[in-house]
Inverse folding.
């Protein structure tokens, strides 16, 4: 299966010939030096450039892969509101305290290059990066 990065580049036509996605890269970095942050930043630029319906399709895929409903911190109120994907959507309207966080074992975290956790109470990846 193609990586998310390759899939995004294919959708945007950046995987042919000497096509280069450098034009989509931000002019300044967020300051951190680990590879995961670079991956997240590039993915955000690619997502911003892709058609809305394709972006929504990818987000829907991530939402269905989110393992928050298996988390001990995720209770009935969250289930009733069908909350998920806090790393993108931001804080939960229901979760007030976190006992443990499963995000580090979630395939969405690896796929999207996430660098944080406890998104339900601390805010989404962008917020936790101070962006
Ligand atoms: S990283 Fe965390 S918040 Fe994001 S989809 Fe996975 S389990 Fe859900
Ligand atoms: S963001 Fe982390 S702590 Fe919050 S519900 Fe999801 S897995 Fe649990």
């Amino acid at each position: 299966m193609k990586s998310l990065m390759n899939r995004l580049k294919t959708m945007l036509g950046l995987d042919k010939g000497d096509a280069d996605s450098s034009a989509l890269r931000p002019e300044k970095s967020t300051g951190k030096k680990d590879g995961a942050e670079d991956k997240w930043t590039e993915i955000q630029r690619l997502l911003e450039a892709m058609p809305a319906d394709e972006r929504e399709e990818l987000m829907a895929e991530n939402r269905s892969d989110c393992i928050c409903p298996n988390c001990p911190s995720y209770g009935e109120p969250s289930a009733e509101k069908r909350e998920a994907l806090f790393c993108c959507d931001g804080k939960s309207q229901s979760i007030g305290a976190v006992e443990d966080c499963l995000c580090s074992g979630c395939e969405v975290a690896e796929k999207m290059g996430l660098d944080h956790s406890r998104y339900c109470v601390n805010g989404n990846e962008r917020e936790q990066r101070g962006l």
